[in-house]
Amino acid sequence: MRWSLNWGRIGMHGITAAVFSALTGFLLWRSLIRWSPFWFFWTGLALGMGMWFYAPFRLFPIVILIGVGLRICSGFPGWRRLVDCLVSMAFAAIISTVPLIQYSFRNPDIFFKRTEETFILNHLSDVSSVKAIWENIVEHLLMFHISGDPNPRHNLPFEPMLDDVTGTLFIAGLILILAQWRRPLFLLFPCWVFVMLAPGIFSVPWESPQSLRSIGVIPAVLIISIVPLVYLSRLFNLNTRGIFRKGGLFSIVILFGVIGYFNVSTYFGKQASHPDVFADFSTSETLMAKEMVKQSQNGYTLFSSRQFLYSLTASVVSGNVYYEPLFAPRDLPISPDRVLHGAAIYLEPREAGIYDLLAGYYPSAKFREIMAPHGGDPILYEVLINKQQLTDSLGVEVNFKREGALIKTDKFNTFSSSWFKDLSGIDLPADFVFQSNLHVRQPGFYRFKVSGDGQLFLDDISIQEDGKGIKLGVGLHSVTLEGTAHSESGFTELLWSRDGGIMEAIPSALLFSGERSPMGLAGVFYQESEPLISHVGLTADTFYYDPPIEGPYEAIWAGFLEIPISAAYKFSLTGNGAMKLFVNDVLVTETTWGSEFAQSEEISIHSGKARIELQYLSSTGSPQFEINWQMGENAENVIPVSLIKPDPEFMRVP
């Protein structure tokens, strides 16, 4: 069976429930047939040993009690014989579980922790739990033939747990057993199925049907499925001709071969290549670790999503290679000072927005989306940026003009220039424009001072010297210094300080040029209407691991969207809370606490810039949202981050 094959190949102890169910069930059957204390002793010993392993097996004593009751109905052995058998079984079970029983009494919180975490009544009210339990019962009964376990680790999602042939035999076996109700002992097997389904039925409803916690039914399902074949074999044996007997045996062997083929081919073919199954067995961590080993040998500094930071799989496969978490917007763009020969970055699917942001910052880098063999959504993103590409991203671009005509271009490391040195041989006066993008990695109050000539513009807003400073958002900010060089003795220099520190030159490692300009949304987070922090460079597909602020808060992300063509557009919003999306100050769609998806009607927008704003009301959770758009009959896509420029009003804390 594919069901048992799946769990037999995974390094988890769940399969032990099926093994001990089969062993204990076999010994129980021998015990009930013979009413032998000897066999009851071994039944109790197997039962006790099974208690040490997977928790759902702890319900198997109920199967034993049902079996004893059914056997008594078909033939009472006498009180003395019955007591001898039960005492023998109880003695063996107790001596094999005494240490476990002692541990459970001394450490009940640990022993029953997982059971309490998954028990349905611990998660739902009394009224809703009755309905949920009934729905779980129905789903577990249907999982054999209609819709199976949806968990990709447990099963080919929603595929019935039994193949068509085994499923047919199972139904036929149930009918044959129920038809022999005068032989009550055979009813043990349907009862076995219902009892061992209980661990799954009484689990949390969002995991239903649960094939792992119901794994103890596998031996009973197989026995019931074999019953029709036993009858078929007897039917063939009634014929005195040898050819019929051999033909019957051959047919049964062929049938077993067909069942085996269906299960093995489905498991190693359709199930193994299914995108969800492929991605769910720590595949991302495994592939990432292998690539990390290769790139570390190339001298690349390794970065990853925080999701992978303490991955046991990645640690084992890579041999504990060192890698750092990458947080946006704090760590993007990447400073060359942080890497050796380059940066190798690995991102989980929820951080697709960061992948797009990196593509905007480093268009010449190597980008790869890793997917399942037969397609599907990416399970891992890889970005390789060499040291030269990172170094070339730094700098301050300078233009000198006279009467509007360009007379010189240059690139400096910092906002500092002496006209005697940099404008030697050029007639003055000359206008100058210094332009770069400042990466603010830490929140705080920043003061700026221009020594010499020039006027400072930060995010296109003129900045005057201020004693308190500006509370800038973490992320990229455009910095422009422009003015006129009047004489060779003149100069210009831009200084800054954070939180009242000493005024000094801005480090060159924080100044980026070219494509490394502010893009995406800028957001401000509020608590009780008080603005606290700002983030710059959020994409239309944004995910936070942790809440930016402790306690309830509100947030507003805003930017200017470049509309390529005047047309009718639709917008859709997916979020994990109450969100409102505005386009040109008009509410187009919103989500609520009970509905995480919303779509707008078609709205006409002219080409050019359109202001978009997303308002978010949180209880205490981490924000996550995705904004898609669709023009006419074209496919719906996430709004490209390259088409969004942050709103300067939200690039700082008001």
Short recap of the structure:
The protein is of the alpha+beta class and 654 residues long. The protein has 18 helices and 30 strands.
- What is the rounded distance between the termini? 64 Å
Structural class: alpha+beta
How many beta-strand runs?
A: 30
**How large is the radius of gyration?**
35 Å
Uncertain segments: none
Question: How many individual domains?
Answer: 4
Our count of helices gives 18
Q: What are its keywords?
A:
single chain; 654 residues; Toxin - Anthrax Protective Antigen, domain 1; 7-stranded antiparallel beta sheet
Fold blueprint:
Blueprint lengths: L1 H7 L6 H20 L2 H14 L9 H15 L4 H28 L1 H4 L1 H6 L7 H17 L21 H16 L8 H14 L16 H20 L4 H32 L1 H6 L2 H15 L2 E5 L7 H7 L5 E2 L16 E6 L4 H10 L4 E7 L2 E12 H6 L3 E7 L2 E8 L3 E3 H4 L7 E11 L3 E9 L2 E4 L2 E3 L6 E3 L2 E11 L5 E8 L5 E2 L5 E2 L8 E7 L2 E9 L2 E3 L9 E11 L3 E9 L2 E6 L2 E6 L5 E3 L3 E3 L2 E11 L5 E8 L5 E2 L5 E3 L8
Parallel strand pairs: 1-2, 1-3
Antiparallel strand pairs: 3-5, 4-5, 6-7, 6-9, 8-15, 9-14, 9-17, 10-13, 10-15, 11-12, 11-14, 15-16, 18-19, 18-21, 20-28, 21-27, 21-30, 22-25, 22-26, 22-28, 23-24, 23-27, 28-29
Helix pairs in contact: 2-3, 2-4, 3-5, 4-10, 8-10, 9-11, 10-11, 11-12, 14-15
Q: Would you kindly provide a written description of the structure presented here, covering whatever features stand out?
A:
The protein is an alpha+beta fold and 654 residues long. It has four domains: 2-277, no CATH class; 282-380; 394-512, Toxin - Anthrax Protective Antigen, domain 1; 521-650, Jelly Rolls (Sandwich), CATH 2.60.120.1560. Helices cover 37% and strands 28% of the residues. The chain contains 18 helices and 30 strands. The strands form five sheets. Strands 6, 7, 9, 11, 12, 14 and 17 form a seven-stranded antiparallel beta sheet that branches. Strands 18, 19, 21, 23, 24, 27 and 30 form a seven-stranded antiparallel beta sheet that branches. A hairpin with a 2-residue loop joins strand 18 (521-527) and strand 19 (530-538). The mean pLDDT is 91.
